[in-house]
């Protein structure tokens, strides 16, 4: 029989071009050559050129986001690695803080390569010093690597400012080498590089935006170019020209100061703790000890106020490293737990000096010194800190830190840190508070003396930048002849709005209640601006007025929105006390459920889905996406009981039987927060029940719409976005109307490739393994076992005579009476499948809409899956009912853990990266043909019913929509008539009054004449 799809159908196109004296063959690569599933948007960017035995990636004339840049770089490396006979060398250059190190780590976690950090080639200067690199050693190392020879890579100690040794590079163990650093794309290095990646953005852009915002607060408007000239004078001359030579250009739009991608949980205590107690707490095999000395300086712009939002923290570590951070980028949670984003941006001492010099003109508000004894085992960090303060004030603290809140809290308990001993104040607040009590604080501390004593060389003694030229004069031109220039270079054009103007939350009295007094309003604003100061007393504020958030009109990125939501919760808990009830609304696939669970993980609270409230008598036709399907009265009753601090009973809905199967007890925990999420959370009827209302749009939903539009274009149609949205997500317009009620609006630009930054590593094998052997690999205290049967429906739109290719499928899972879109665009690397973790539920209307557009079910995959899962690892036994074969899959976010588990189960050498469709086709064409017979599938029969019902309802809805439009037009016409009548009456009234006034004036004028005549 004819195969319905092929991962090999994309044709290779070859053309001849000439560049210089060499003849290059330009080849457009398809995914079958890389072992990758199709991603048309990504694969269309990749082209390589061959000259003899040399292969080269052609420049991509498009700026990529961090997520897409990561995926394109991975695929480009795989492409060249398969074509070359040696190592693939990647240069990753850009300014400090752009995200180079993070990207390099992500790449090596996938490709298992070696990273060469240029800071190890320093000769005693700074990492941003153009002439401070040992280029002789670096070029010798690169020659050895490209020749396939082992070599010695230097190790440099930044604190000692000296080379401390070498590490051995084994050529046979690494096929990918990444050269990472500010000057990784220098002219001397470029000839050795197969792929050149330039990066800008990240904290580099964030700092520029922050400075522009701060200087604007004091009435000084500085352009991006002016800030660059003042802060990073080397950028235009020595960094930007090389970035324009990059083949892959990445603009990292991460709002680093307001992201909690990997938050750090911290508690700080005044309880004395010995080093012996700390060492007993940690894993001795992995524990690392160090002692650090810090000088912390908090900078602010004069005339802009001394609040955390207006301060920049510069931390000097061991007289060597200068780290910069936003002093407001922390959130205080319950029990004085501090949530830190850990984002610090390393600068050189001269940059610090430029911050204090004109035209930037920052001043030091607070400065103090601290010594820390730090012990860490990789999972937990304990720091014993001592501040240099007067003897009569407590100056010794212990900090316990971890990315896992449970680990942090358990460690704090073992160290005997009581709640009474915890403080959420920053060291700046402790030090400044003591100084304000002891003596008036000088407006400018003796920073020069501190720096001369603490840091060498003193940053203030570095050459100062010149003031920008007046607008009438042009600055001297920079030699950028090596690359074309544009009016708005991609290297210095931040596209995202500054976060600092929108972080603060303001409170207001709710409509119909007592208005806050001026003093109270000022206090509310102050509390919102100093949220990091720690929680205040619980309960209602004085006067019994529960204030509400003032809504923000602008839209925010997903991670920024998450940060701001946590800030809003912190402010409300400080002012109103618990409980704080959060409502997150938006269409299917927008990311509302993901946001709800991210907030819940951080806050340690519970999530309630509005899907619980479906009423059995209202969902007979599976109209789950209708507001009328919800038992709103019960929802409001539950919310009222939770608002009053009482336990309540939440309904439980069975989707398979489409009925309510009971209730379960529910109450808000000690954290005082609960999150409700659902499509209609912001509906007019229930919106007032929520303290924080969040609207989320975009997300994977838009990914599906883009996919549909691409398929329609391949078919020769010219689809319109609005038409596709109306077909696939017919309820979106109704939900969108509720966004106006949100306090916070989030536009989720999430793309499935984003998940590949933190992928699920999967090993798949057909080898049979005993259940007892599987259970031995899991933690018996947390292991869970479950079995479920599902059917995957593979939809395709027929637009090719050869049938659908692998990238044409839309994979829909029918499990337990619900439909889910499965996004599977993995990277295949060796035996591993790196899989995005993206699934989202859809309604039957969406299914019907897809079929109505032209999609058809081309294959049904029936699987019974038995899953063994603990906190770290998932092992799944899949029985493919189509061919009665079993496969084992090992899944985790830790690649090494997956590899070790597979080896322990004896699976080495038996792995496959084929998708199940390939497996079924290759093993049994007959079974494959039977899987196409849709009459054998209950899912296919149900799908036909859905399509029929959708088309019937669609006609009814269209008629209803027309009637609604006619009714609305008639109402508008009547309103126009009424306004015209009022206007006509007003005109006659004006004319009449004018005549009366004119007559009165005439009579008044004639009155003296009459008196004389009398």
Automatic annotation (TrEMBL):
Coiled coil: none annotated. It comes from the Eukaryota. Residues 126-251, 581-718 form the Phosphoribulokinase/uridine kinase domain. Residues 1-24, 457-547 are annotated as: Disordered. The keyword Cell membrane does not apply. The chain crosses the membrane at residues 985-1006. One of its GO terms (molecular function) is hydrolase activity. The keyword Nucleotide-binding does not apply. Residues 482-501 have a biased composition (Polar residues). InterPro entries: CYTH-like_dom_sf, P-loop_NTPase, PRK/URK. Residues 457-478 have a biased composition (Pro residues). Keywords: Hydrolase, Membrane, Transmembrane, Transmembrane helix. CDD domains: UMPK_like. GO terms for cellular component: cytoplasm. This is Nucleoside triphosphate hydrolases superfamily protein. It comes from Klebsormidium nitens (Green alga).
